[in-house]
Backbone:
């Protein structure tokens, strides 16, 4: 998501920064291109118009054009306006689920068919249970789509969240009442109601969801919107907004290669904050929404804070600390590498991580061209698991016959084994160097500094970020390959080129 | 299979344009049944489409009418027309092509709002018309294998249900394969459709290998002399390399049993989708060899203008659209009606000039 828009915008804006003096016409031409870029990204037309108006107003002002770096200034104006459109000036608490009511707090999920409501329901349920330690009950009011209730039941089981027992033939309003009742009796903190998908012109169904809302008095009413939605997003928001008092938006399929137009439009057209982003098919693929970070991503400034948080959430802390210690001592062995590869996959794989890094657009394209996917990680893991524990701890043992055996065990070639060993050696060397220069492991810094203000990165990370690689994370964070200057370790890419 | 048999089985979905072939049905009642659906199908297509598109066509129509306050076509009016088309998801490129043409022909000349609408409808129809292809089951294949692909939530399973129903109605032996082994309860969903339609559903457990399942299903379908096998697949975003590789594997594996299969690879597009549908069409075609499009959810406020953009860019055959949740809401595609409904012209309006 966002990459294409990001490429387009940066192309346009970089042209401005390359020139010294700017005339009003230059800016207007550039903004005309920005307009097209936004429209092609499916940003709603009214939002685009307002955006361009605001930016123009400020950008063609005398002080901008006469300043020393007019291009930079305009990028800043665009950035500020993006943050604004995304709802960046709201107090942070508006982006969290409001549970500040007499329990159970009812959360009502509404949206079109196929927007991803049921999956989102389960993800939020999981988040509230695991992270916020709430007792959550899920209930599906979808009596229309075959097996929809069953789907939520299965997902509930998967994520370990209770679901309301299914009663055949019960109508949505009755299910909703039963769910709230069960929530009260069972001492639940939150009851999430997943409704059937509906088109906004279906009067009967729209009335039904309005009735459910009236009967259950939800603390949160979330509109679930597919981030691949086109200009219809405006209608959807208006129509649902007219029948329900929406309190927030959950965007799904943010991991697609859509350009994120809906993300940019929804805040403006619903007047509600975006609260969640669904970023994958896995149940943990749920992110909070941060306007400034998304704006950064769009302008290819990266989202390091997001990456750090993501790492912190899915990484085994103790293991990480142990690896960090080993690294400092310079005894980073293949066992540790294997752990890191696993962590990396847990983080959502290469693509997901790269998406959060600044200035990585090019490397990402390289990756796509090299057709590098997470298979490489799986292959490397397979190689390591074909080794004996002794070999893992001491890669020097690996002679020709051992390599042959390992390659056979993993179904790969001896060259693959060699590449892996080379990569490990390079990483170990780099880590030794870093340890000497006194780098602070990312993980040491993160947990205490989770609420870091933008731009104030943990020293280790910030410092080592500069060259474009990610050695800081390379330590316990689980980003082995990404170290080194260009971002991509020779081992990883090399693996693929041969194919 | 004799020629006569083949003829008997060969049916178009929907409109039943191949009337001469329905004549081989000797029962008069069957003949009548076909005719009634035919008669109803056409007006109901437009009516439903208009109902669905009324908001959007209203918007375009109003848009066109309200921007057109001057007698002459000037750049301001053009810019506004551009905006109106963009809000219908036609995309910047297609929009520019249409407004560019209008400007070339009529700039600074007198033109009425109706003329603008008619012009736009004509352009849209001209893009779509060559691509309208009724979905056809080729009885020479035994079975005709239909693979449904698309992103999550596009409406693949529902579309299979509707198509299977229609195929069954037309006297074909139908089998369904629950190839969405990922989404919770997707298999159950298809099973419910199988029951409704009266078609066997080949399924395995959640998490099973979809390609293996497709292989088994085709093997069984061949064995049991099924006419058409619909293979459902898990929704996948086209930028997920591994998932797309899995889809490619499904097509590869079923080719082992029948080198000509899958005979139809249908990409299901959600009408609410924006410009990303272009990518969807491109990538799914590259990987799975899409042979035709089905657009769903045109019963909402979505304008489905993206179909025009996809048609202009990818040139994929357009088979049908879904305008509602019931089985009858699955209709063959009619370019003129679609174009007129999109810009808010009456269906009885003369065929737009091209």
Residues:
């Amino acid at each position: 998501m966002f990459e294409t828009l990001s490429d387009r915008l940066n192309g346009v804006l970089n042209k401005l920064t390359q020139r010294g003096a700017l005339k009003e016409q230059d800016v207007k031409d550039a903004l005309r291109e920005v307009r097209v870029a936004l429209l092609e990204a499916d940003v709603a037309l009214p939002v685009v118009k307002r955006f361009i108006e605001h930016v123009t107003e400020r950008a063609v002002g005398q002080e901008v054009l006469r300043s020393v770096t007019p291009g930079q200034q305009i990028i800043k104006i665009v950035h500020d306006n993006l943050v604004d459109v995304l709802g960046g000036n709201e107090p942070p608490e508006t982006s969290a689920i409001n549970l500040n009511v007499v329990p159970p707090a009812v959360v009502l999920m509404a949206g079109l068919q196929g927007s991803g409501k049921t999956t989102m329901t389960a993800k939020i349920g999981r988040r509230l249970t695991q992270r916020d330690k709430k007792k959550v009950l899920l209930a599906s009011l979808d009596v229309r789509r075959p097996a929809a209730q069953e789907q939520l039941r299965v997902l509930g089981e998967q994520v370990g969240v209770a679901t309301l027992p299914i009663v055949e033939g019960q109508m949505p309003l009755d299910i909703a009442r039963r769910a709230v009742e069960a929530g009260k009796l069972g001492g639940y903190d939150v009851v999430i109601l997943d409704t059937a998908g509906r088109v906004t012109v279906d009067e009967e169904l729209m009335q039904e969801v309005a009735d459910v809302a009236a009967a259950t008095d939800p603390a949160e009413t979330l509109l679930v919107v597919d981030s691949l939605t086109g200009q219809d997003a405006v209608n959807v928001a208006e129509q649902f907004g007219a029948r329900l008092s929406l309190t927030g938006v959950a965007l799904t399929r943010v991991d697609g290669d859509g350009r994120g137009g809906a993300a940019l439009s929804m805040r403006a057209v619903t007047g509600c904050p975006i609260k969640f982003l669904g970023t994958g098919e896995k149940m943990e693929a749920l992110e909070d929404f941060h306007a400034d970070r998304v704006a950064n991503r769009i302008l290819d400034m990266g989202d390091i804070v997001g990456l750090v948080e993501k790492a912190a959430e899915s990484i085994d802390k103790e293991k990480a600390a142990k690896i960090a210690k080993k690294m400092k001592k310079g005894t980073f062995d293949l066992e540790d590498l294997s752990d890191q590869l696993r962590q990396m996959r847990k983080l959502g794989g290469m693509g997901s991580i790269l998406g959060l890094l600044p200035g990585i657009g090019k490397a990402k394209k390289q990756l796509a061209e090299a057709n590098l996917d997470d298979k490489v990680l799986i292959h490397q893991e397979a190689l390591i698991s074909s080794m004996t524990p002794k070999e893992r701890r001491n890669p020097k043992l690996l002679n020709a016959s051992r390599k042959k055996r390992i390659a056979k065990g993993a179904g790969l070639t001896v060259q693959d084994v060699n590449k892996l060993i080379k990569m490990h050696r390079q990483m170990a060397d780099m880590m030794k160097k870093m340890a000497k220069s006194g780098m602070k492991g990312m993980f040491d810094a993160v947990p205490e500094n989770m609420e870091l203000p933008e731009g104030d990165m943990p020293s280790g990370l910030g410092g080592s970020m500069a060259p474009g690689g990610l050695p800081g994370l390379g330590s316990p964070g689980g980003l082995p390959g990404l170290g080194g200057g260009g971002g991509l370790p020779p081992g990883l890419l090399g693996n693929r080129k041969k194919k | 299979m004799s020629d006569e048999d083949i003829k008997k089985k060969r049916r178009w979905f929907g409109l039943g344009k191949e009337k001469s072939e329905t004549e081989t049905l000797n029962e008069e009642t069957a003949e009548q049944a076909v005719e009634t659906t035919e008669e109803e199908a056409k007006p109901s297509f437009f009516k439903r489409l208009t109902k669905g598109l009324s908001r959007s066509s209203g918007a375009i129509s109003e848009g066109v009418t309200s921007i057109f306050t001057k007698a002459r076509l000037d750049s301001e009016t053009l810019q506004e027309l551009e905006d109106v088309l963009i809000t219908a998801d036609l995309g910047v490129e297609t929009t520019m092509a249409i407004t560019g043409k209008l400007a070339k022909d009529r700039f600074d000349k007198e033109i009425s709002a109706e003329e603008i609408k008619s012009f736009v409808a004509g352009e849209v129809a001209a893009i779509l018309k060559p691509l309208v292809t009724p979905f056809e089951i080729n009885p020479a294949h035994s079975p005709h294998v239909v693979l449904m692909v698309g992103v999550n939530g596009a409406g693949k399973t529902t579309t299979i249900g509707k198509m299977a129903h229609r195929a069954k109605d037309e006297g074909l032996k139908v089998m369904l394969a629950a190839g969405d082994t990922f989404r919770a309860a997707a298999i159950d969903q298809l099973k419910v459709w199988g029951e409704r339609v009266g078609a066997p559903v080949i399924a395995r457990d959640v998490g099973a290998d979809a390609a293996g399942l497709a292989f088994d299903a085709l093997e069984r379908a061949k064995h049991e002399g099924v006419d058409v096998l619909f293979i459902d697949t898990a929704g996948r975003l086209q930028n997920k390399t591994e998932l797309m590789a899995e889809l490619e594997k499904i097509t590869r594996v079923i080719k082992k049993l029948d080198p000509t299969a899958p005979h139809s690879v249908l990409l299901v597009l959600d009408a609410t989708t924006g410009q990303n549908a272009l990518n969807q069409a491109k990538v799914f075609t590259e990987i799975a060899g899409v042979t035709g499009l089905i657009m769903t959810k045109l019963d909402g406020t979505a304008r489905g203008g993206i179909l025009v953009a996809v048609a202009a860019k990818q040139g994929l055959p357009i088979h049908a659209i879904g305008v509602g949740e019931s089985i009858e809401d699955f209709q063959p595609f009619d370019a003129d009606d679609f174009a007129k409904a999109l810009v808010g012209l009456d269906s009885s309006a003369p065929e737009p000039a091209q």
Confidence is low (pLDDT under 50) at residues 439-499 of chain A. The first strand of chain A starts at residue 105 and ends at 111. Chain A touches chain B through 52 residues (CB under 8 Å).
